[in-house]
Write a structure and sequence with these properties.
Layout lengths: L2 H6 L16 H13 L3 E4 L23 E2 L6 H14 L5 E7 H6 L2 H10 L4 E6 L39 H6 L5 E5 L4 H12 L6 E6 L3 H5 L5 H10 L6 E4 L2 E4 L9 H5 L10 H25 L1
Parallel strand pairs: 1-2, 1-3, 3-4, 4-6, 5-6
Antiparallel strand pairs: 5-7, 7-8
Helix pairs in contact: 2-7, 3-5
């Protein structure tokens, strides 16, 4: 069965007409993930882009065809764990799924997420990483990259964007020793679908999926280039696609001949100002991360 045939056989769990920005590939990721997970799913969507596009409801109406609730930024994993425990008590096996942005996952909600991972709570946590608090005006998060312009890391005569590298959340989650962790991109949909299916079948702990999602509105590029941008991110090695399963790392997309990192950065407004020095710093960061990842994968074979 082809990917198109498989997806056509699943019901869309998100109704039409939600108010995501033009070219938003986070909505595509959410629809795809929930299609795979199916109607036996309860989803938590904390404040963020997807909470703000009517997926959690407005005026007694919701954009979801499945139960959805709206936790705070800092308690998503804890609330979801409680719901999962309740269903376990009454003898029902449901998919308890979080769909949260990087702010709710890497910053405000990290404590609750880390606790759920350490306890082995059987929930699925999907983080859509668009490198900032987009829903409230593109403030920097700990996932924002070095040099990036945001509304709180401005560019001018005295400052040149964010001054530190992004937090490596996928490796941090893998270090918890959870049964399954994966990175994914909407530019590589068959890979993303396979990883959602794997997460659905995890029954002995937390499954974490980190999806790299660009943002046409906040990053500054034409909406029709939304998928091209994240593909460039992968092909420049800026967004490595790999998984950690039962203690072993595996590189899913091996980029043997990366495209120019400079071309990727200059394809959007938020990096238009970066200097040659900042590009060199980013290149060193990307190369070091890639080399470490290759070593982890090689030693896992």
């Amino acid at each position: 069965m082809s990917i198109a045939e498989k997806m056509a056989s699943y019901e869309d769990m998100v109704g039409p007409g939600i108010t995501a920005c033009l070219g938003c590939n986070v909505e595509l990721s959410m629809r795809t993930a929930l299609q795979i997970l199916g109607p036996n799913t309860i989803v938590a969507v904390p404040p963020g882009c997807m909470g703000g596009v009517q997926s959690v409801g407005w005026a007694d109406k919701t954009g979801m065809k499945i139960p959805v609730f709206f936790p705070l930024l800092d308690n998503t994993a804890s609330m979801l764990t409680g719901i999962k425990k309740y269903y376990e008590r009454i003898g029902r096996d449901v998919n308890a799924v979080a769909f949260a942005g990087d702010g709710a996952s890497l910053d405000a909600g990290f404590q609750a997420l880390s606790g759920a991972a350490e306890r082995g709570d059987n929930i699925i946590y999907i983080c859509y990483d668009n490198e900032g608090y987009m829903n409230t005006g593109f403030q920097r998060s700990s996932s924002t990259s070095l040099g990036s312009w945001t509304s709180t890391t401005p560019v001018g005569t005295k400052s040149h964007g964010k001054t530190s590298h992004k937090k490596d959340m996928p490796l941090i989650m893998a270090a918890h020793g959870i049964p399954y962790m994966a990175t994914a991109s909407p530019a590589y949909m068959p890979d993303l679908i396979k990883k959602i299916e794997k997460a659905k079948n995890v029954k002995n702990g937390l499954a974490y999926i980190h999806i790299y999602n660009s943002c046409a509105t906040g990053w500054g590029y034409e909406s029709e280039k939304s998928i091209d941008i994240v593909r460039k991110g992968v092909q420049s090695r800026f967004m490595p696609i790999y998984e950690f399963e039962n203690g072993k790392y595996k590189l899913n997309i091996d980029v043997k001949n990366p495209i120019s990192l400079k071309d990727y950065l200059y394809s959007m407004k938020k990096y238009k100002h970066v200097s040659e020095e900042q590009i060199a710093q980013l290149q060193e960061y990307v190369d070091e991360k890639w080399d470490n990842l290759k070593k982890l994968c090689d030693t896992s074979e």
